[in-house]
Amino acid sequence: MERPTLYVAITNHGFGHATRTASVANTIQKLCPEVLLIMVTTAPRWLLDCYIEGDFIQRPRALDLGVVQADSLQMDKDATLEKLLEIKKNKNSIIASEVNFIRQNRVHLVLADVPFLASEIAKAAGIPCWTVSNFGWDFVYRDWGGSFTEIADWISNCYSLGDRLYRLPFYEPMSAFKNIVDTGLTGGSPRYTPEEVRSTWGITAPTEKTILLTFGGLGLQQIPYDNLQQFPDWQFIIFDKNAPQLPNIIPVTDRKYRPVDFMPVCGRVVSKPGYSTFAEATKLGLPIVSVTRDDFAEAAFLLNGISSYNSHQILTPSEFFQGTWDFLNHPPQAPKQSQPIAKDGNEVIANAVIDYFRG
């Protein structure tokens, strides 16, 4: 029997897509160790290693670009458009190169989050493409209007060639896709016990006064650290190389540790709208504090999702950047929905992939 081989195409944007897809890939490998994972992404190897426990091949290719950004909140639309037009111009050579690789490596299935060329590549290679996401790039670009409208139409057309979409929670409709399977939350799970995390990192504050600050792989240039001095008996866990040395800040520099590993010892996570952080926190029942993002179309769906299914506080940029952070002294709001959200996305997608290989 030929070894089942999965080509996992990940969008070239930030760290969130890489971590959520690596969580699904890890579940596939745990349930079916003979699957060969080929992770097609320019995300750093150490990031994938944090989520995938077994062996995998990394093929560092950028099949798209997402949005060119200076940090987690600042976007460069002109540079984004220029690079998208370049991808469109070179698409035939990109597709040909990947089809050649897929055939040489006897790949059976493409799993994509959510590069639009993946479905074209799979179609040209004569194998199925299954997409996993809560939004498409056509939706993000269409919201920007102007020259992006034509690009968005092209991308919608690419997506429509896919065979199946596993639509994650907190989604925009994703109407370009024809065959949609709604799925539960995906994401990583903590690898350490709360006691191990507390002793390793010197966390002594009670859970309700331990706060995780995480802004994704791109970071945030202007976190108002001065405010943290007003909470001397609290502790703030921060993934930021440039964080100031304050007695109540715990900077995480060991790459083995991920934000999800700290969530069980925290009372809240303070973040920007991002699926991976929101999903991992919601899976663990950790309240979320998020700043709004009016310029990113996906944000409204994400914020609506956590308002419905998790305890939350939603701040305006001025409350976050210019305020005193007094919100920490107030309890989060309860979720609007009484029914819990499904949390089995990793397993549902993994089992479908394995069933396909065994078919």
Tell me the span between the first and last alpha carbons: 12 Å
Number of helices: 13
Gyration radius over CA: 20 Å
Global geometry: globular
Multimerization state: single chain
Low-confidence stretches: none
Characterize the main sheet. Answer: 7 strands, parallel
Instruction: Report strand order across the widest sheet.
Output: 3-2-1-4-5-6-7
Describe the structure.
The chain is α/β, with parallel strands linked by helices. The protein is built from 13 helices and 13 strands. A 7-stranded parallel β-sheet has the order 3-2-1-4-5-6-7. Strand 2, helix 2 (45-51) and strand 3 (57-59) form a beta-alpha-beta unit. Helix 1 (16-31) crosses helix 2 (45-51). The longest helix is centred in the N-terminal third of the chain and has 16 residues, at 16-31.
Quick overview of this protein structure:
The chain is an alpha/beta fold and about 350 residues long. The protein has helices spanning about 15-30, 45-50, 75-90, 90-105, 115-125, 135-145, 150-160, 195-200, 260, 275-285, 300-310, 315-320, 345-359, and strands at about 5-10, 35-40, 55-60, 110-115, 130-135, 165, 180, 210-215, 235-240, 250, 270, 290, 310-315. The strands form two sheets. The chain has a seven-stranded parallel beta sheet. A six-stranded parallel beta sheet has the order 10-9-8-11-12-13.
Write the layout of secondary structure elements.
Layout: E1 5-10, H1 16-31, E2 36-40, H2 45-51, E3 57-59, H3 77-89, H4 91-104, E4 109-113, H5 117-125, E5 129-133, H6 137-144, H7 148-160, E6 164-167, E7 180-182, H8 194-201, E8 210-214, E9 235-238, E10 249-251, H9 259-262, E11 268-271, H10 275-284, E12 288-291, H11 298-309, E13 312-315, H12 317-321, H13 345-358
Parallel strand pairs: 1-2, 1-4, 2-3, 4-5, 5-6, 6-7, 8-9, 8-11, 9-10, 11-12, 12-13
